[in-house]
Design brief:
- This protein has a seven-stranded mixed beta sheet, with helices on both faces. Strands 1-2 form a two-stranded antiparallel sheet.
- By secondary structure, the protein is α/β, with parallel strands linked by helices.
- The chain is built from 14 helices and nine strands.
- The mean pLDDT is about 90.
- Helix 1 packs across helix 11 and helix 1 crosses helix 14.
- It has two domains: about 280 residues, no CATH class; about 120 residues, Spore Coat Polysaccharide Biosynthesis Protein SpsA, Chain A, CATH 3.90.550.10.
- It is about 55% helix and about 15% strand.
- The protein is globular.
Length: about 425
């Protein structure tokens, strides 16, 4: 009974808050803004709706960040020093119920141009099916370890780092298809250019409607990161990532959190580590195939954002440089708040629909489709995906779900989340 009441309160809370934000957006959208220009012989007064300003500013933001992303992903992957041999590199693949997709990462890593490489599959000790699959792949290059800190990806990575003699590591998800030059570039970035962490880009394979929605969602997030990177912040995750042992130990490794990779990125920033972001090195990952999986996975990531902010505010994560800590916290708050604010912004744009101001409400829709298609064109040219037509059509559907998803995640974390996480089923196709 108590659980039902709690869920009912949570549902009323996010629905009521969402409605309130929509009403605020509608009210603000119809407010008039006035610009008066006084000349010697002329007084000119220009009046427009707040909704028009919102449309123009949002369109400008989309185009600015999106064009930066298009430029980065379309730049030939020759601006990083590649080395094909050097210090031993340990590639870690943490797995849990991933036996049917494990071949994607293992086989693509076998094709890596970096030669001094070992691949370690880190399994959960009670996941016998995946352990059996992993052991069937073991040979001189591939080995299997059992997670000595069961229940988390962070623990699996820690197990391998502690038991390995390497000073360089790379981490991948089980379903990643890794660019054959990625590790050679990562080791060049670490050992020739002197960076602490090297980060590539992962994209969901847009081979269906839901899968394309997932692809477009990643495009919008990568574009938004471009603005944040002007502060010096770089995203470095627990997939498509190469790092030194020293960097790992400096930040205290990955934390046992829902989004351990987000926490790692913020800790690297707070400790002033040098992170080389290279989105023109692309790994493919299997996208969710159903709307339920898409919603569940994205909600897990948003709850993880809230958890990392909470852990930071309560002092559970390493501090690092003081001013960078405050910038890091500000980055988390603005990211979460910005997603919620989208409900207000989209309500303002809806005012333009009601007033039949076609040009102004089509501008952000067109900009969203243009940027997604531009990134899709770069990925298609690189041979990573097939077509950009569906991407351009689906992209505008992404933003309406952001605000509701984040708002629901905040309240679920506060009232009913019990620490469990959503696991997306992968087909391995």
């Amino acid at each position: 009974m108590k659980a039902r009441l709690q869920r009912a309160f949570e549902t009323l809370g996010w629905a009521g808050t969402a409605l309130l934000l929509v009403l605020v957006g509608l009210y603000q959208g119809i407010q008039q803004q006035v610009l008066t220009v006084e000349l010697l012989w002329l007084s000119l007064e220009v009046v427009w709706l707040d909704a028009v300003s919102a449309s123009l500013v949002f369109t400008g933001f989309l185009l600015f960040t999106g064009l930066l992303l298009i430029h980065e992903v379309s730049t030939p992957a020759t601006n990083v020093t590649e080395i094909t041999d050097g210090p031993k590199l340990t590639a870690i693949i943490p797995v849990y119920r991933d036996g049917n997709v494990l071949h994607r990462s293992v086989e693509s890593l076998r094709q890596s141009s970096y030669e001094n490489l070992e691949i370690v599959i880190a399994c959960e000790p009670d996941d016998e099916a995946t352990i059996a699959t992993a052991e069937s792949m073991a040979d001189d290059m591939v080995s299997v370890m059992r997670n000595e800190y069961p229940g988390s990806k962070a623990g699996a990575i820690q197990t391998v780092v502690e038991r390995s003699a390497s000073d360089s590591f790379a981490v991948f998800d089980a379903d990643e298809v890794v660019d054959e030059a990625f590790l050679a570039s990562g080791m060049g970035a670490l050992h020739i250019e002197g960076h602490d962490v090297f980060q590539g880009r992962r994209i969901p394979e847009p081979n269906g409607l839901v899968e394309t929605l997932a692809y477009c969602e990643r495009v919008t997030f990568h574009a938004s990161y471009k603005l944040v990177e002007l502060t010096g912040f770089r995203n470095c995750r627990s997939s498509s990532t190469v790092f030194t042992r020293e960097a790992y130990e400096t930040v205290g490794g990955y934390d046992d959190l829902l989004t351990e990779d987000l926490a790692f990125a913020h800790k690297c920033y707070r400790h002033d580590l040098s992170v080389r972001q290279a989105r023109n090195y692309t790994s493919l990952m299997e996208a969710p195939h159903t709307l339920a999986d898409f919603w569940g996975q994205r909600k897990r990531w948003r709850i993880g954002q809230v958890e990392v902010l909470h852990a930071t505010l309560t002092g559970q994560l390493t501090d690092g440089v003081r001013h960078r800590r405050w910038i890091s916290i500000s980055r988390m708050i603005t990211s979460i708040g910005g997603s919620v604010f989208l409900l207000v912004l989209l309500s303002k744009l809806f005012v333009l629909v009601l007033l039949n101001a076609t040009l102004y409400y089509l501008l952000p829709i067109f900009a969203t489709a243009l940027i997604a298609a531009g990134v899709g064109w770069a990925d298609a040219r690189a041979g990573d995906i097939d077509s950009v037509v569906t991407i351009a059509l689906v992209a505008p559907l992404v933003y309406p779900v952001f605000g509701v998803l984040m708002l629901k995640s905040i309240l679920e974390y506060a009232f009913s989340w019990d620490g469990t996480w959503y696991h997306v089923e992968k087909t391995g196709a």
